[in-house]
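ugh ok so i messed up the first submission bc i forgot one of the chains. this is the corrected input, ALL of the components this time, i swear. 594 residues overall. if the numbers dont match what u have on ur side tell me asap before i send this to the collaborators (the ones from the other lab, u know who)
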Amino acid sequence: MTTEAWIMLIITWLVVGGIAIYLVLKVLRTPPRDDGE
Amino acid sequence: MTEVAGVKKERWGTRVGLILAVAGNAVGLGNFLRFPAQAAQNGGGAFLIPYLISFLLMGLPLLWVEWAIGRHGGQYGHHSAPGMFARMGKSPWLKYVGVFGLFTNLTVAAYYCYIESWTLAYVWHSLIGTFVTTPATEFFPDYLGTTDASITAIPYEAVGWFLGTLALNTWILSRGLVKGVEMAAKIGMPLLLLFGMVLAIRGLTLGPGDPGVIESPLVGLNFVWQPQTSGLWNPSTWLAAAGQVFFTLSVGMGSIHCYAAYLRERDDIALNATTAGSVNEFVEVILGSAILIPIATAYLGLNLVQAATAQGSGFDLAFLTLPTLFHQWGAFGPIACAMWFGLLFFAGVTSSLAMGQPVVAFLQDEFRVRRGPAATAFGTATLALGLMCVILYPGGTFAEFDFWTGTFSLIIFAFAEVIIFGWVFGIDRGWAEIQRGADLRLPDFFKYIIKYVTPAFIGVVLVGALIKPKGTWTDAIGSLLAGGGWPLDPGSVIGRVLHVGATESWFDAQGGITKIAVEDITRLVLITVFVLISLLVRKAWKGRTITHERQEGHRKP
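and heres the new structure output, hopefully the right one now
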């Protein structure tokens, strides 16, 4: 692997993976809304 | 399930179940077979720049729009697109835009379930060791019935697996939202992620000491990720990136609308939609790039892999090459092969269920058909259309379905829905709909992106599909300016309609029908299906007065 390819891969995987994991954790931590139904 | 006014109304069992179901809808075979080949052929790592920009300006806004349209329609008791669109404005024609949301799902399911059945068949043949003795390159043409020159075929084994797959889909749909669709997503998605991670780790750690390995899998990874920035100035790269984002998210189908319709009025959609989209991107960008091409490169070498993915698809590698390569992995080989096709099966079944649910919901909501018979009706219609794809596969029916319903129809529907959302329903009202109950604060500038930028983006993709040139766009524009005309690609929409490049007519010299005839007949069948669904919508709305009062639990006549 060239350095440029590694840089592209690491940045993209960190951004895409990081956002996905952050959002999944946010969903899991958000309490269910109780609107009386 | 809740009960209001004596009528049971289905709801999602859990929020995680909903997100897994929507992510499962988006995660399909394209995440593993199409994305890595598209990236490798369109600038490598540089492809990710137009890809992520397209995701931000087109993909995410479309996801929010579809969730908002769905939840809004659900409050009036509509869980399929015709009813949802009827509620977005006063024009009686809006409901017919929603016909796309049924037509696309039904017709895509017809051929998609066929591909899904291949993956199930491959799981079975992996486990019984078929590929140890028979190379997949011999097995697959026999399986599809494409080994002779005829344009029809009755491949009995393939038909059997297709029937089994359809029966499974129908059974799951008939179990209902929570016990069927949500349960399937809760089982399928974790297994898909597990299988994907196991295969990616094993594949990327192949070394020179492993039997059969001729090159490092990192050479394949490099093929996908090496940035070629010159590609950024090529319009084809941007069109390919926008197209990939479009199809990977399953927008423009009507299935996301349907799933969102089972939410309550104040349930979040901003966080749910963004999370489901991000999970799909995780699977596509990380797992999708780390399995197929690196493993194939390790055993075949880069040149063969480059040739196999030159058309922008890893389909041949997946079905013709990988089964044989896995058997280099010793005792783990058949299991790894079954995991690969199991992963593709779970990606497929969670998507095909999302195609069935809107059709089932349409029959339930608008014709008061019970869930079981509605699911059976979906299975029967899919079988009828699917058998056409199976028997006329060598004649090109499958490819016609894929293009007109799985590609062109999606773009048309997405273009129409984002215009209706921003300009007919009204962007202020629409933005308020997206923000209601939001657990994630979305930047306000997206309001303007949805109104102006997203329609323009899809418009460019649409024009690109309509007049895609043969060769590069730069050469085509040069040819036009020099008075040489526009060199239409036979694969463009207009090129296909006009059969550009075809030399034969409907009948050959012996009086037999040709592929051209099969293609035209397939198009007539698809138009007929669209008209029949439109007539059903017309019948459902006949004599009905649309009021715009929200209600919970029961449908207004």
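quick check: Chain B touches chain A at residues 2, 11, 15-16, 19, 44-46, 48, 52, 218-219, 221-222, 225-227, 264, 266-268, 271-272, 274-275, 278-279, 281-282, 285-286, 289, 437, 439-440, 552 (CB under 8 Å). that seems consistent at least. The radius of gyration of chain B is 23 Å.
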